[in-house]
Design goal:
The protein is α/β, with parallel strands linked by helices. The chain is about 50% helix and about 20% strand. It is globular. The mean pLDDT is about 90.
């Protein structure tokens, strides 16, 4: 019987979290789905973990590293009418899959983004979660959202196979995909009850590295889409007005949110340094 949903999980050296991720996805009560794990040339015990699940999962090995091409390889192997993405460092709630694909089945949407909670409670994870919540609130408009989050995303299979991810992007390929969906006039539904627990960055070094990379690649994506005049909140940092008001905004955040300020300062500075870096790398 052909599966109605294909769940694609790209992984690179994800041995620490992959087993729990797969167990949670395989425990879904949804009637017909397949799980495809794309091993993006891991050097740890990822391959052994995948094999331990036997025929419960399908495995694709990909020598060329990159999140976009890993997801595209999973799409090429998928049999489902709907395509679902999550990441190897996520744990799905028991009704996650049913809640995520419900808007697709009701024909009210062609693309759906769910939400996430922090899988750990350390300082950095709490700050990342708070910042993500603020961002989701900004880009959400009722049942719709201007955001694609590939750790919790579902889309009509025909549409996904036609568009695919941009393999030239090493990061923020989901941001690029969101802009292309918007340009094509495809609205994105928000499914707040489709929840995964995500292992957020949980160290100072990881927060800096993540935001440097995001700033760099968001800058690249913004330049790719500049002629389309689409500037969602994620791209506002690249405006002159934002750069001028940034120091005043920082002072205000220090006064209003002193506990949150260390994370905010580090992430925002890293983000902007990354965006400046991309101008010198073109």
């Amino acid at each position: 019987m052909k599966p109605t949903v294909s769940v694609i999980i790209p992984v690179y050296n994800g041995a620490a979290t992959l087993r729990a991720c797969l167990a949670s996805v395989l425990a879904q009560a949804y009637p017909s789905f397949e799980v495809i794990v794309v091993d993006n040339n891991s050097t740890d015990t990822t391959a052994d973990i995948i094999k331990s699940f036997g025929d419960q999962v399908r495995s694709v090995f990909l020598a060329k590293r990159g999140r976009g091409n890993a997801r595209n390889a999973g799409i090429a192997a998928a049999h489902g009418d709907s395509i679902v993405f999550t990441d190897c460092d996520c744990i799905a709630s028991s009704d996650w899959l049913a809640c995520l694909v419900a808007p697709l089945l009701s024909s009210s949407a062609s693309a759906v983004t769910g939400f996430h909670v922090a899988a750990t409670t350390d300082y950095w994870a709490r700050q990342v979660q708070q910042r993500d919540q603020i961002y989701f609130d900004r880009v959400r408009n009722g049942e719709w959202i201007h955001h694609v989050d590939t750790k919790n995303f579902a889309i009509d299979g025909t549409l996904m196979r036609a568009m695919l991810f941009n393999e030239s992007l090493q990061n923020m390929e989901d941001y690029d995909f969101c802009l292309r969906l918007t340009t094509a006039g495809v609205p994105i539904s928000f499914a707040p009850n489709a929840v995964v627990a995500h292992h957020h960055r949980s160290s100072l070094r990881a927060v800096i590295a993540t935001n440097l990379s995001r700033g760099y690649w968001i800058g690249r994506v913004q330049r790719m889409h500049h002629s389309r005049q689409i500037v969602p909140p994620m791209g506002e940092s690249f405006s002159l007005g934002n750069a001028i008001s940034f120091p005043i905004w920082l002072v205000g955040q220090l006064v209003r949110h002193p506990a949150h300020f260390p994370y905010l300062f580090i992430s925002e500075i890293s983000w902007r340094l990354g965006s400046i870096w991309q101008f010198f790398k073109l």
